[in-house]
Design brief:
Length: 86
């Protein structure tokens, strides 16, 4: 092999090593980002479950609250009529 071939082999070897190193760094960063995204998705799921349970509680409480409002409104109407009657 002559000198030009040796220089070409060295240049290609250096570029191959650089691309290999760059590929490893990119792969590690992608794995880190995927872990962060997975953590965020897990936290979002937890928040969604919490919001779902709060919504369920409000839905279950809506019936008794509506009944309480009707009774309160009736009491206000009766009290208003008593004050006007006197």
């Amino acid at each position: 092999m002559d000198t030009a071939t040796h220089i070409l082999v060295v240049i290609l070897s250096v570029f191959l090593a650089l691309f290999l190193l760059l590929g490893i760094i990119v792969a590690v960063q992608v794995i880190r980002v995927l872990r962060i995204v997975q953590d965020i998705a897990h936290k979002a799921e937890t928040v969604l479950d919490s919001a779902e349970s709060v919504g369920r509680i409000f839905k279950e409480a809506a019936g008794p609250l509506a009944l309480f409002r009707v009774v309160r409104n009736m009491a206000h109407i009766v009290q208003g009529n008593k004050k006007r009657g006197k």
